[in-house]
Amino acid sequence: MGFKPLIWFREGVIARVETIDASEVINELAGTVKIAKVLFRCKAEELKRKLAQEELYESSSNKLIYSISTYNTNEAEIRGTLKKIFKDYRLKAVRKRLAPHTLAKRLHNCLDIIAVKEQKYWIGKTIACSDPYKFKERDECRPFKEPEIMSSIRIARILVNLSCVRPKATMLDPFCGIGTILQEAMLSGFNVKGLEISEARVRKSIANLEWVKKKYGIKQSFEIKKGDATKLSKYFGRESFDAIVTEPELGPLLKSLPTEKEAKYICNKLQTLYEKFFNEARFVLKENGKIVIVIPQFRTKSSRVFTIDMNKIMKKHGFRIFNATEALPIGVSVPFLYKEEWHKIERLIYVLEPL
Ligand SMILES: C[S@@+](CC[C@H](N)C(=O)[O-])C[C@H]1O[C@@H](n2cnc3c(N)ncnc32)[C@H](O)[C@@H]1O
Q: Which CATH number fits domain 134-354: 3.30.930.10, 1.10.287.130, 3.40.50.150, 2.102.10.10?
């Protein structure tokens, strides 16, 4: 996609792009919440006049639901200006705070204004919004599901994107479960291989990936083996993969927050598993390959946080963190934290490269 960044700010970027299908792009990006079209850029004193000139709202109805997201600027100021304009136009405008998945469904009859202050004001109007339910077909219609262990389509797509490899590359998910990451990788253009210790899940993965191939008419290849991710060199040759992308075993299913003793115990067990996996990963990964891996982080009942000692693993097995955002004029801390309110486990996403 032709993409020329103009302004980076903590939560986003203002960029010049070629004509794009915003709803398609937002699905491919998966981790991006909104895409807005810039309406205009102006000085503070011009804001009211420019907003009043703009055709913000296309419907013939005099009722309007709107929302505002502001970055580096005061929401009250924008809201006050908009209120006056709506009043002048005799619009019955009601402001609502809409969650992205609600906004995604209501964009046709709802106005979502984005205001960014970076020296001047940049005012935009949301044209696409991430909707996790959009992935419903790829999630719910496949032959097999296992909600207790399977990755969400959204996180699977984010992980595949973070691997930064080009289509036609070969990707491995060594803890492939029922194949969610592999299916998203195939849909992104990669040939994929998967390893899974459970025979039943190997069969489910194969059925799911065959379904994806047929349903979406894709040519990418897949191969799933039953096997142990701590013995990768038994199944694959040296430097077989451009990327390893995985959400590995994350420990037992938690119904409530763990105690400190439980969290320590789970982390110790996972530390051993991951160390063995990383020891083998170096062998099957190409020199310029990447590993994208989800590492669990446990918040205990007493609010302490326990996780895996990744520094130890990286040092021992010759990996370092790859931060694609390093060159950008914004500080993004890595590993990335992915946290949903209803999850008992927080996820740290590491992107690693061989030293
Ligand atoms: C979190 S799940 C992966 C979910 C997967 N991304 C999906 O969407 O289905 C982790 C998987 O790792 C498998 N597993 C656990 N230990 C393993 C090992 N040593 N080698 C290979 N697979 C293993 C489990 O059976 C489980 O299916």
A: 3.40.50.150
